[in-house]
Amino acid sequence: MSRILLIFLITVCAMPALAQETASPVGTSEWGRLINAVALPLESPAHLKISRVRQRWWGTRTLVDFILGVAEALQTESSPPQRLIVGDLSGRRGGDISLHRSHENGLDVDLGYPTLSGAEQDADGDHSFLHAMVDRLSGRISTDFNLEASWALVRAAVRSHLVQRIFLAPEIKRLFCQHATERGELETEAETLWRLTPLRNHHDHLHVRLYCPAGATHCRNMPDPAPHLGCDED
User: Fold this and answer.
1) CB within 8 A of 178, min separation 6: which ones?
2) Which stretches of 15-107 are assigned E, i.e. beta strand?
3) d(CA 106, CA 68)
4) What local confidence, expressed as pLDDT, does residue 16 receive?
5) Mind listing the pLDDT tens digit for each residue in 124-165?
6) In whole angstroms, how large is the CA radius of gyration of the chain?
7) How many CB atoms lie within 10 A of CB 71?
8) What are the Cα distances from residue 68, in Å, to 8, 12, 64, 127?
């Protein structure tokens, strides 16, 4: 087990004891709202919130703590060390927001793919992620894509048992399938692979969706993905 995975698992496992859920997600990610939202800090040594003019830094306590746990592990253990680039969560009261068909109840977040350069971007303004990891025309994956850090990131996220799905570029899902095959991890990382849902327009970010927190009686999960790898070899 890699150090980034071990540290993140320790962090996530401690979350329920450290912070009880205070927000109330209502409805679904595509048709919902958010009560008593929790704000993600805009910046730390481990993460950078971008697109700040949109003011979409609100989520459940579970989501905020999840992001901070991911960020700390990535910043301390990736090579080179880098901060996690965080895009949109939800609006303060949830509900419909521009550029998204989801992100409505505080359980979704967009995260930049880890890079080999560790490059960041200006956090102000209305721009989204500037570092595309897949060329939209050719489907070619950028030479700046950090495969090892990205694979460790999604593995750790899924093993937190908080994540329902991670939407990502189809080209990167195929690369993860190839990587898992080469490492002999198709069986041990089966759950990770089937939770990775390929979706167009995710060439520059990962879209992470968490399960409804325990006790959120008015929150509704989307259906789980079909329990297969979704790889060419599957």
Assistant:
1) none
2) 24-27, 32-35, 38-39, 47-49, 58-59, 84-86
3) 15
4) 41
5) 988 899 999 999 899 999 999 999 999 989 988 998 899 999
6) 16
7) 25
8) 10, 10, 6, 22
4 has pLDDT over 60: no
Tell me the pLDDT band of 57, cut-offs 50, 70 and 90.
very high
For residue 170, CA distances in Å to 47, 85, 133 come to 26, 21, 12
**Helices 147-159 and 170-182, interaxial angle, to 10°?**
90
* DSSP class of 224: P
Res. 123: pLDDT tops 80: yes
Q: What is the pLDDT of residues 171-224, one digit of tens each?
A: 999 999 999 999 999 999 999 999 999 999 999 999 999 999 999 999 999 999
Nearest CA among 5, 128, 19, 144 for reference residue 70: 5
Alpha-carbon distance of 159 to 155, in angstroms, equals: 6
pLDDT bin (cut points 50, 70, 90) of residue 15 is: very low
DSSP-assigned beta bridge partners for residue 48: 43, 85
- C-alpha 163/C-alpha 183 separation (Å) is 23
DSSP 8-state secondary structure symbol assigned to residue 214 = T
Least confident of 7-11, 118-122, 230-234: 7-11
The C-alpha atoms of residue 232 and residue 197 are separated, in whole angstroms, by 14
Torsion sign over Cα 183, 225, 9, 68: positive
Pairing between strand 32-35 and 38-39? unpaired
